[in-house]
Amino acid sequence: MVVFMYINKYSFIYKTFIFKKVYFKTNNEDLKLIVDALNIKNNKKRINYIYDTCCDIIDNKYKNINICGFNCHKCLNNIENGCCKNCMYQSINGCPSKNLTCKLFYCSKVKEKYDVIKYEDLKLLKLFNLKQRYIIQIDYFAKREEVLKDLYSISFIYSFIRILIRQIKNIYLINKNKI
Ligand code: SF4
Ligand code: SF4
């Protein structure tokens, strides 16, 4: 049993094989989610937990608040479907999936109006390695399962090629639908 109180950008070492048999514990409420994540010893399940929990934190903060000011499907910048207008997955009912990268994007108007949750505010993301943290910042226009697959992969090149192909496909389909 280990109690730890200090979390920094190197905290991902707690996920290594050295701590495989260690059960973490804390009395600090701020660290509870991190400790819960570290006690999931299966890599994919831990990635899923971190991803879904971060999405939930954002969704819960904006529950019942229309931060993008949507009215008749137009956002406060008067854009039909808002930022999703350039995504192959857009639907009239909003996003059909759960994309953390998109959830962390806000235009300047939204940032002026609200104290938004930023990437740095999500301490759980410190448990991701550098490659995973980078992916979370660039993986727009993708479904939850696609992003998770990018996060699972050990190879950055493999994930990057997947993201690139998806972005090209997205541009092609969006332009095709405009014709
Ligand atoms: S972030 Fe800004 S541009 Fe994007 S949907 Fe919201 S209000 Fe519109
Ligand atoms: S993946 Fe992103 S851009 Fe596409 S519909 Fe969902 S939130 Fe919108």
Characterise this structure.
The protein is an all-alpha fold and 179 residues long. 43% of the residues lie in helices and 2% in strands. The protein has a two-stranded parallel ribbon with strand order 1-2. The structure holds iron/sulfur cluster (SF4) (2 copies). The site of one iron/sulfur cluster has 12 residues, from loops.
Question: How would the blueprint of this fold be written?
Answer:
Elements: E1 2-3, E2 24-25, H1 32-38, H2 43-61, H3 100-103, H4 108-113, H5 130-138, H6 144-152, H7 156-178
Parallel strand pairs: 1-2
One iron/sulfur cluster binds at residues 68, 75-77, 79, 82-83, 106-107, 109-110.
Brief account:
This protein has 179 residues and is mainly alpha-helical. The protein has helices at 32-38, 43-61, 100-103, 108-113, 130-138, 144-152, 156-178; strands spanning 2-3, 24-25. The chain contains 7 helices and 2 strands.
Keyword list:
binds iron/sulfur cluster, single chain, 179 residues, two-stranded parallel sheet, 43% helix, mainly alpha
